[in-house]
Amino acid sequence: MDKIVVNRAAAERLRSFFPWVYRTDIQQSAGEPGDLVSVHDPGGTFLGIGYINPASEISVRILSFSEVEINRDFFREKLMAAFRKREALRGKTDACRLVHAEADELPGIIVDDYAGHLAIQVNTLGMERLRDLLLPELVELRQPKGIYEKSEAKSRSREGLGTEDRVLHGEIPGRIEIAESGARFLVNLRESQKTGFFLDQRRNREITSSYVEAGFEVLDVFANTGAFGIHAALHGARRVRLVDVSREALEQARENLALNRVAAQTVRADAFDYLTEAPGARDRFDLIILDPPPFAKAKRMTAGALKGLRHLICQSLRILRPGGFLAVFSCSHHVSQVDLQRAVLEAATDRGCRIEILEHLFQDRDHPYVLNIPMSLYLKGFLLKSF
Ligand SMILES: C[S@@+](CC[C@H](N)C(=O)[O-])C[C@H]1O[C@@H](n2cnc3c(N)ncnc32)[C@H](O)[C@@H]1O
Q: What residues are annotated to the active site?
C-alpha cells in the first residue's frame, strides 16, 4: 500500500478521530485516485488507512485508525457494528438508515432499509472501488429482498463519478410500504428525494405529534410526502394542510393520506410565497411545521440561510394562534443550533411574541452524531410555544 505524509495540523485531527485529510494537508502524496493509502505524520508515525482521491478537496477519507487489512471481514465487522446501533429502533419502525457513512466508519456510503429493501448511495471513488468487498457482506448479513442504488449526489461529480440509478439485486417494487410509530408510508425509491424517505425526522415527528390535541389545525410546510402532517392527523388534528413545491412529493403524500385513512389539503406552492401571501385572512393554526431543505450547503451561505429561516419563522408566528406550537428545523451543518435559536428570537422580537422552547430536536439515532466529526450533526430544530 502506498504511504502518504500529512502536515502536523492534519495529524492532530486524525489523532482525535477526525476522518478526513484535506488536499492542502498532504505533504507527500502517492497512489492513484481511489487507491488505499496509509497515512503518516511528518515523523513517519502511522495515523490511519484510507482511500485517496486528489481530485476531491477531501483527498483522503479514513477507513481505520488501526493497521488492519481492508477486506471482506473488515466490512463485515463495520456493518455488524452499524446494525447493532439500530437495534433499539426495532418495534418502532421497519425503516431506518443502516449505514451513515463516516458516522459509522464507512466513509462514502449510505444504506437505508425500507422493510427489507435496501437503498444505497455510493458517494466517493474510493468506496466505488471497495463496493465489491462490502456489498456481498451486506447481502449475506441482511438477506435483502432487493437493493436499489441511488447514487446521484452532487459529491459524486466532485469525485469524477456519474449518476447511478438502478436495481442492483433482487426486486424493488414501485411502492414499498413502511411503518413508523403507528403510521404507514409508501416509499417510491425510483422517484423520491434523498434515498427514499426522510428517516432522520422520525423521532421529531413522534415528539411533535405528541403535542397534538383533538381538533388542532395544522400547517405542514415543506411537507414532502406528508409525514409530519399525517402523524398529526392520526393524533386527532381536525384540519391538516400540506405545502410543498414538488408535484411528485405531493402525489405521494396523497397516497400516504389514503393509506392512513386521514384527510389533508395538499397545496403545491413555494413556501416563502405561500406563507407571505396565501393563508386566508382568518386562517390560524395550532401547529406549524417548518422543515426546509438545506439552505446553507456551504459556510458562505449561512447568513442567507438564516435570513430565509427568520422570514419563514416570522411569517409562521403571524398565523399561529396564541399558545400555538411551531416546529422549526434546519438540516444544514453550517447553521448551528445557537444560530437557529437566534433566528427564532429575532423573528419573535419582530412579531412581538414571547416564546418557550419545549423541545430541542436532532436527527434520529440511526443518523449518529459523532462528537469528533462536527459535520455529523446536521439536523437541528426546536419545538416552540408562542404567546
Ligand atoms: C427536508 S424535506 C421535508 C421532509 C418532510 N418534512 C418529511 O418529514 O418527510 C424538504 C422539502 O422541501 C421541499 N421544498 C424545497 N424548496 C421548497 C420551496 N421553496 N417551497 C416549498 N417546498 C420546498 C422539497 O420538495 C422537500 O419535500
A: 331
Q: Whose CA is nearest to atom 12 of ligand 1?
A: 222
Residues of the chain with CATH 3.40.50.150: 198-386
**Residue bearing the CA closest to ligand 1, atom 19:** 270
Q: How far is Cα of residue 312 from the mean position of the Cα atoms in its chain? A: 21
244 lines ligand 1 (CB under 6 A): yes
Distance 159 CA to ligand 1 centre (A): 27
198-386 sits in which CATH class?
alpha beta
225 vs 29, 129, 243, 262, CA distance in Å? 46, 34, 10, 14
CATH 2.30.130.10 residue ranges for the chain: 2-64
- Could you give phi then psi for residue 340, rounded to 5 degrees? -65, -40
C-alpha 352 to ligand 1 mean position (Å): 28
Q: For 170-227, how does the pLDDT look when each residue is reduced to its tens digit (9 = 90+)?
A: 999 999 999 999 999 999 998 876 667 999 999 999 999 999 999 999 999 999 999 9
Superfamily (CATH H level) for 2-64: PUA domain (2.30.130.10)
Closest by CA position to 338, among listed 299, 380, 370, 378: 380
pLDDT, tens only, 295-353? 877 888 888 889 999 999 999 999 999 999 999 999 998 999 999 999 999 999 999 99
Residue 222 Cβ contacting ligand 1 at under 6 Å: yes
In this predicted structure, what is the pLDDT of residue 221?
98
pLDDT at 278 > cutoff 80: no
CA 299 to ligand 1 centroid distance, Å: 21
**Counting atoms of ligand 1 from 1, which one is nearest the CA of 289?**
6
Ligand 1 pocket residue status of 312, Cβ below 6 Å: no
Ligand 1: does its nearest atom lie under 6 Å from the Cβ of 112?
A: no
Give bridge partners of residue 118 from the DSSP assignment.
113, 147
Bridge pairing between strands 239-244 and 265-268 = parallel
Q: Is the CB of 273 under 6 A from ligand 1?
A: no
Residue intervals in the chain for CATH 3.30.750.80: 72-170
Distance from the CA of 145 to the center of ligand 1, in angstroms?
29
Is residue 228 within 6 Å of ligand 1 at its C-beta? Answer: yes
CATH superfamily of 72-170: RNA methyltransferase domain (HRMD) like (3.30.750.80)
Beta strands in 143-216 (DSSP E): 146-151, 164-170, 176-180, 183-187
Whether the pTM exceeds 0.70: the reply is: yes
Mean pLDDT of the region 101-121: 97
Lookup: cell for 254: 396523497
